[in-house]
User: What shape does this take?
Amino acid sequence: MKILGLNEKDSRFLLIVIFLTLATPVLLQPFPEGSGMAQFNAGYPDLMQRFAIFGIFAIGFNILFGLTGYLSFGHAAFLGIGSYAVVWMYKLLDYNVIWGLPLAVVVSGIVALGIGFISLRRSGIYFSILTLAFAQMMFVISYSDLFGRFVGTTITNGETGLQVYGNDPQVLLGATEPSSPHFFGIVMRENFWTPQFGDWQFTFNNGYYFCAVIAILAFYLSLRIFRSPFGLMLRAIKTNQNRLNYTGVHSRPYTLAAFVISGMYAGLAGGLLAAMDPLAGAERMQWTESGTVVLMTILGGAGTLMGPVLGAGFIKYFENIFSKINDNVLHQWFAWMPDGLEDAIVWVLHFFVGKGWHLTLGVLFMLVVIFLPGGLVEGGTRIWRFIRGTDRKEKTADATHQPEHVAYVAEKEEF
Amino acid sequence: MSIIHPTRRRLLQTGAVAGAGLAMPMVFTGAASAYTNEPTGGTVTLGFNVPQTGPYAEEGADELRAYLLAVEHLNGEGDGGAMNTFSSKALKGNGILGKKVAYVTGDTQTKSDAARASAKSMIEKDGAIMITGGSSSGVAVAVQGLCQEAGVIFMAGLTHSNDTTGKDKKANGFRHFFNAYMSGAALAPVLNNAYGSDRKAYHLTADYTWGWTQQASIQAATEGIGWQTVNNVLTPLASTDFSSYIAPVLNSGADVLVLNHYGGNMVNSLTQAVQFGLRDKMVNGKQFEIVVPLYSELMAKGAGKNIEGVFGSTNWSWKLQDEGTKAFVKSFGTKYGFPPSNAAQTVYAQTLLYADAAERAGTFNPCGIVEALEGFEFDGLGNGPTLYRAADHQCFKDVLVMQGKKDAENEYDALEIVEVTPRAQVEYAPDHPMFAGGDLGQCNPGA
Amino acid sequence: MDAILLQILNGLDKGSAYALIALGLTLIFGTLGVVNFAHGAIFMIGAFCAVGLSQILNISFETIDPTKLDFLGNPAKIKTAYVESWFGTEIGAAIIDWAVPLAILFSIPIMLFAGWAMERGLIKHFYKRPHADQILVTFGLAIVLQEIVKAFFGANPIPTPAPAMFQGSIDFGMLVGFPENAIIYPYWRLIYFLFSGVVIVAVFSFLRFTTFGMVVRAGMADRETVGILGINIDRRFTIMFGVAAAVAGLAGVMYTPINSPNYHMGMDFLVLSFVVVVVGGMGSLEGAVAAGFLLGILESFASMNVFKDIIPGIDQIIIYLVAIIILLTRPRGLMGRKGVMEE
Amino acid sequence: MGILEVKDVSKRFGGLKALSDVNLSVEEGTVHAIIGPNGAGKSTLLNCFVGKLIPDTGSVMFEGHSLLGIKPHQINQLGVSRVFQTPEIFSELTVFENVMIACFAKRDGSFRLQPFKTVENETDIVEKAEQMLVDVSMIEKRDMHSASLSRGDKRRLEMAMCLAQDPKLLLLDEPTAGMARADTNNTIELLKDIQKQRGITMAIIEHDMHVVFSLADRITVLAQGTPIVEDVPEKIKGHPKVQEAYLGTAH
Assistant: This one.
């Protein structure tokens, strides 16, 4: 079966992704309410929305980093720009996200064009530092609302974050219109179905499905790009730019296009953040946030289709679920142990969970970079090969850090 | 190291904490219930949203300790603390409205985004009926806005910006902590007495919303006693080295330096100002002085000896001698072995106030709680008689002017109370220009 | 005029901190070809060596003083440092007072060891990997190190003052004929500046005048040739990593009285020091030092209201702005060599 | 008038005269070798052909276009393909993808944004790339990771990429440097075949005499930055000046 101009393998892959995305509210809610494991449920709207949104962000980043190898440390800037664009549309027009989202994509695309045009004149770490410098600059400008101070009206509302106030113009606001973000009356924060089966409770949220549909489109687009001549050229840039140039290809427009596309993805993700939650905070532009999307991409597997999405989900899960395991919870878990042993185990573990989740993340990330350069996707592939007993010498010895080929297997079999 | 490390027995007593026995989250729809997350079981869940990572993690940890204490007291465990001295006697030590109090914790990371995400997860996943916490104004304003939209009550923790109950005030949000205007109003007379009315002030101000409002408040208050303001320099929030901002101060003709900084910024700028020897100098024939309008015990600790003799203000201090304070300090000190910070006290008080309001209103419905809290007069939680003003949901109570103590006996003894500024002196009209522009709106029960 | 001189002085001082960190960073890059994102964390660990030493010196025993009461009304416990009880109160207090300078001695072996352990344990395996991988693994290491420090020392800044005799400031302006208070300069910053100068000169002369240094410099220029000569360049590079760590660590130790150390001070400096290195030119020691001072001075000037009135917040963005301009006009930084980091 | 015309090219590096008054003409359809002892200026000359170095004086014209200072992709688009000393390929891609990239570059020029096309649906490219692999007899290695190829196969792949572009001129920079004898002979055969079948003009820079005399129609001998002799191989073999140049530097 072939759909949407994809070959059979990719069509099947896309269908699986669509299914997984749409079934997320059920899949992420495996434990009954009230059970000790309920803590690990992740099927609540905010986190699911974040999975989808940061999935989009990471997919876009992967188009730049995974394909061309250009490591941008400033992508969070586009995230912020997207958010600001959407919130400004709320303030000026109304709460319908239809105005803001396209604007978010366009504006971040334009800014990416500017930053990319300058930064891509350099490569390697010079490129990384240039993007970092641009993004940091935009972060401080937003955090202290410097731009606003320059023009005499607030633009970013500083560290409090841009939000809608009662006295904003909102010229299109109708009398019966919802007073929170919506898409032609479909209110993002509302749930359209909250079924309960025994102790299992599921939440089907408008906002999540809105994000999910966009995420699927974004994924489909990236799949097309991966399979296109454009994608091939980008991968060629990563492996040997010199040869590519002597093959008659001008690499800069390609990298610039990749940079702009990934900037637009980031802008879209930022716009969606504001579409789910009508506040745009400056912190989302900080360089550590750019670092987070790098972590996501690497953790999942740079250059693979599914890897960045997995990485994004993984980190967001850590941030929201793992960080909530406090000492009390640990003591409950290990209450069956003898007192001394229990205390010892809890003492060790508490460095890694709850407020120590950064430490776990850091250790995990190092392990992935050292032992699994292809990220979780490569890990999955290795396990799959091991189970199937396929000859492991074939690819794993190859340290070239490029798992596109293995990706297929993982893409098919990961779930 | 400061890690909450209770023994197992105490834990088992605390009982239905975190994971277990949560109310079913009824997220935002509430077709069946009258308001968001109406508790249906035998427990009610509160969400404690404090910084656990990032630069304010220690403050968050202290707030968390106070929350745990409050939960114990509400559930009738421990010695009851300030519940015994609280003027309202609605709380009986059997939870809230007969329901046992459970809680969830979250990490704000001192970022508006992360704080909102964490609060949302508490509301959507854990069914929290009330969110409380925060140790910076940006976070408080962001989370307050979220709670207003979601239809739960927000009991702010440490937030000092005028905007929280000014430009950004919300019907579902309540602030017990004092604000920048009050700091100015309380400090000005003390500064007048100590340093005279003929002074020239030089402001260094952290370049973000809180810094701006505090600077404006202090400038207005000090100019009210006749001081001149020589200069106001905004410093980047990421600064760690303030030398280039401090060095020109002496030569500007100023004889007082006002540091509108908080947290790490304040520790560094104060340390460096002292290093520059500013306080050893005579300018205009007067001893040069430094003022830090907003103090926190933890930051005072971080600045070490540098705060000796420096004036500032706090919301509360464990050195107060009223009954409420003594009761709270006793149970906190017994449990943890050291005295609480003023951030801890404010969140403890907020938790009791919320519980009491629910008891008095007879419901967890946010609108009922708002009604019960608006205009509520109480005493016995520290700071003397206190009013939750209906017009902006700001608490009015005595404000403390503190001074860095010489020869502190230990790290908890860094500050001493110079004056307890009576409530009347720090009050202002709800439409005061520094607080104008906001709209409380209607209480939102979410359903 | 005095304002300008004042900011130049401040800039030199800021710059010396930047230069020291950037020097270590570029040393590692130049010798080993590794982009070390954990360098900020090394700086932070240096600072915590000082904190650690001062805490060790302050290890106390408790005695109960029945005449005093603590805040709960129980008899107060009085802490006395062992150092004070062993050496007598006065000498003991003096030793504690001098914790930071003492930490210099204390930290050198620790930092050398830390550098060696990092190189042998982790970095060694990344010589052949792409720069992106090096950035990533050291970034991960930086997170891990700072979280460990946080777990043990907490998130709050910890005051670590300079010895009493170095507190206060010198009126530098009066020495050169300006009125009183025009140009003041804290003693400790003066010491920091001189100390940085000594370290920088020491590193340069070490590389210039010792055989060891010459081999390393030759290796920086052309690794393979030196390898052919039968010199074990790898071992020397390991030592250089230790030296770089020690330089950053010393910068950290000496910085503690200026900034109360906290666990994230490394990350605060990391971005900045990378900008310094890149502006100076990757792999150029002279460039790193020059860029450090240049950016320090520019940043100081930008903090003057004269400039801030024209462009609000110029002091926040000046460094990035300068970095962008320099990288675009001088592709390899101020003194960078050709072909470095341009794969 | 040759396809590649080098006129009065001189280049100095500081005090060192690397090239002085080089004049050279590569005739269409011939294999022209440039030989010379180490340090004779061969690499400098090549760098002047590909825009990497700009000579102090003189001109390098390809079919009437100056090659001085232009970008690599522009040179290629003019019809000049380049083979490197060590085979430069896209080692992280498959053999087939390598060749396809060359085909795309030929068809679409230096830049064409087509993110919505699918590589495998571009039948003309796929067919052409397959044909190229057949031509260099590598079709059975089509889906291999090119990093895992032998040195000789990498060279074949590189040739296939160059041929896919139907170049008017092929620049070869010591194409057999560092190769084992068998690989060297293989490469010579490959180049001979190509020359026979397609008649592509080639300029070879080489110091291996065996390679040069097996392939070249014309040879220019460079010594100390100047061409000393230019002639057919048979005449070069015993030429006294050539012997002097080689022996002179040997002692």
